[in-house]
Amino acid sequence: MPHDHHDHLSPSGHPYRPDDDHPLTYWQQMEIAVRELLIEKGVTTAAEINAQIDTMDARTPANGAAVVARAWTDPAFRDALLADASAATRDMGFDVGPMKLIALENTPTEHNVVVCTLCSCYPRNLLGLPPDWYKSRAYRSRTVKEPRKVLAEFGVTLPDTTTVRVHDSTADMRYVVIPARPEGTDGWSADDLAKLVTRDSMIGTGLPKSPDAA
Amino acid sequence: MSDRQYMRVRADMPPGHVRTPAYLRGKCGWVERTLGPFPNPEALAYGLQAQALPLMRMRFSMTEVWGAAAANPNDTIDAEIYSHWLEPAEAPHAP
Hints:
Chain A has eleven helices and four strands. The longest helix of chain A is centred in the first third of the chain and has 15 residues, at 26-40. Chain A has two domains: 26-57, no CATH class; 60-213, Nitrile hydratase alpha /Thiocyanate hydrolase gamma (Nitrile Hydratase, Chain A), CATH 3.90.330.10. By secondary structure, chain A is α/β, with parallel strands linked by helices. By secondary structure, chain B is mainly β. Chain B has a single domain (6-88), classed as SH3 type barrels (Roll). Chain B is built from two helices and five strands; from the N terminus they run E-E-H-E-H-E-E. Chain B has helices at residues 41-44, 62-66; strands at 6-9, 28-39, 52-61, 76-82, 86-88. Chain B has a five-stranded antiparallel sheet with strand order 4-3-2-1-5. Chain B is globular, with a radius of gyration of 14 Å. The interface between A and B is medium-sized, with 21 and 24 residues. Strand 3 (163-168) of chain A pairs parallel with strand 4 of chain B.
């Protein structure tokens, strides 16, 4: 039966997803051409490019979680982080590179959230590659206009007494949010606290995990 | 609040690689902190000699940016604006 609707379902009972194997786009071809030329002319090597990809892939939100947990447990480090986050995180081995970093501390009266309306600027040294939603038009345009609605969709509902500060990462700075330390974690080690720090809590679209969930 | 240094973002729409978001052009905010100097990205993007300019972290009230549509007038938007995009301004009148 050629039109049997079962033809459209995989053996699992779900619809088949179309393969993502369209021809290369103009810019994909351009990237390959430039990369091959740079290698051919001896400007860089394939090994250097692979090493850089490995470096990028090795950076994860665990870097940022270590920074946040230390800020929660080491008041001198917290002060240094708020004064100059580039230097403080470089000292921990997380070099932000030519960009500069600003740490934004959440308090009972202030909640910070980070967006890049122009593109997808993100503190990659601390969080790795940005999630797809961070680069979406919806997140980029709505966060500056209706941040409370966007936060509520992420599950963060804030009282009117908390001021929301949106940070549009427009130029040379990168931003990391230092979420408030969860209640009920007195005496915890920095390593245990780091397990409560989520990627989204460092973007500002989430909160750290509750100690009961750890 | 009286210590605030208010500046207005120029309302221009020049072509090219500009790091001043369109939704903030013509809006009045206050200086949250001064950063840089950093090379002007509008020249840097084209491989030209880029002048190092102060970069201002400007803070805008939601009401200034979105008017009556702002959900909470106390909420703010911070953005980095290069100094050549800013001109001195009076504090905006309360809505």
